[in-house]
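[Q] Does anyone have a clean structure-token version of this?
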Amino acid sequence: MVFACLFALVAAGRASAYTEQELSLRMDDGVDLAGTLYEPSAAPPPAGHPAIIVFHGLGGRRQDLAFLAQAFSDPFAVLTLDARGHGESGGLVSIDGPREIADVKAVFNWLAARPEINRSRIGAWGLSLGGGAVLRSLVDGVPWAAAVTVQTWTDLFSALAPQRLSKSGAVFNFLSSVPQNRFDPSVQAIRQDAIASTNLGALRAWADARSSRSQLGKVKTPVFMFQGRRDFAFDIAQARAGYRLLKGPKRLYVGGFGHEPSTFPGPDIAEVASLSSKWFTRYLIGTPADFAPVSLAPSPWRGKLRTYSALPATRKLTVRLGGFDSLAGSGRALRASGPLTARVETFGSPQVQVTAKLSGGWSRLVAVLTARLPRGGEIVVSEGGVNTTGLSGKRRLTIGLIDVATLIPRGSRFRLYLASSSLAQNPANLLYLNLPMPASARVRLGPARVIIPILQSPVSR
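[A] Here you go.
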């Protein structure tokens, strides 16, 4: 509904504001990329139109973001593309590998060479896969004048295999979003390892070639990072790390969109589009504009942001959960707390600390932290897992959970599920799949402690 309303607002009265041209751009390996170029109807200024290239997500196509291109297309020229292996484009998908970044460079150069375009005033807007391409192309030298990234990664390995344990369900879903015959052999080669958390050295090398974090400290380009409050694929930590490293003008917005359990667009899409447009207007045209360094959209969205001069301050809430459980196969341990005496809002990565005695090849431990609401129902606060392959005997395990912003009402009771998969919490929770372990695998769990970063002052109600 929000998406439809925004599209209607953008389209209303805009038919004469821009022209639209379908294109086919040939890459140096003979592959054609399909694109749409939106240009202002008015004559270009003497230096040419400032321009924006818009990049979609994995499994998407350029039409998905047509509403955004139309919103930007006055005063900007806007080029949308079907990425290699997507939509009407040819070629194979390697998930922001070197070939796709070469495409980004070629497309930038093609647009910059057009006489009506100001080559020194070209920006990039990227969603998920597209955001990863924008950041990687930045560190690889594409001279963007400004950039906006939305719900993407800065370090792909830590995003999808934190603590050396793959988010197997999320990875499976990503790899199912594109027909298998459209994947490059480099993706086919890591498919099973990426799901099963095996051959991690090769997997890390593959992911590093598609990541930007290690080189973001040299980037001085203005970058606005939009990240989802509750995105279990690319969490707040991915943008938080990038935001700290960037050396040029930078802003961070945490809002109501993302990968599962959120969606894009979210309820605050009009705010995201407006701030993106203002960012490009500021750095591609030079129009003065003020932006809060950090913004957090409350949940539910009511049209007003909480702004900060730096990352918001948090304090630690510690929850101790006693008990002993012995698990085999798909068994689970469940610990529960007393009721919360006040509402709290998480902001950061919770930690679960638990004593464990491992035997028989027990290879992973997954923790799902939920809140049982006072009026009934249960929400997943966060979750995570640790790879215990090769470990045995008594251990003190620390499991880092996904960095999210989640409101927990007063009177709620925390529930901590410990098992070999997230399905043990709920069969519909497919983030960590129930992959095989030896029949002899066992774990005995002792007392647990959960340390939760919470905002000093909640923004949501």
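[Q] Thanks! Anything notable?
[A] Residues 1-5, 7-15 have pLDDT under 50 and may be disordered.
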